[in-house]
Amino acid sequence: MTLHRITVEPSDRHVRVRHGDQTLAESDEALLLRETGCPDRYYIPPKDVRTDLLAPSATTTHCPYKGDASYWSLPDAADAVWAYPDPKPEVREIKDHLCFYEVEVS
C-alpha cells in the first residue's frame, strides 16, 4: 500500500490564470500543494483573484485529506474554481485560497 502524502509550501514561481482573453488571477504568493496520485495544484490568495468574475456554485466535494471544498463557476465553465474554507489541520495553509484547474507558471 502506498503512503498518501500532502505537502504545502510557498511557490517560488509566478502563477497566472487565464480564461479566454481574461486574466482571472495573478500571484507571486501562491501555495504549491503536492498530493500523492494527484497533479500539483497552486492555491492562490483571494486578494490576487478576480473574484468579481466568479459565481458561487452549489457544488461541494469532500476530500478525506483536505476537507470539504466549495466551488465557483465562470459564465462558460461550471465549477472551475474551488477552495477549502475549513481545511483539515494538516493543510491549514490553504484556507480560503482559490485553486483553478488550468494555470500558467513562470
UniProtKB/TrEMBL annotation:
It comes from the Bacteria. This is DUF427 domain-containing protein. It comes from Streptomyces fumanus. Coiled coil: none annotated. Residues 15-102 form the DUF427 domain. InterPro entries: DUF427, DUF427_sf. It holds the Pfam family NTP_transf_9.
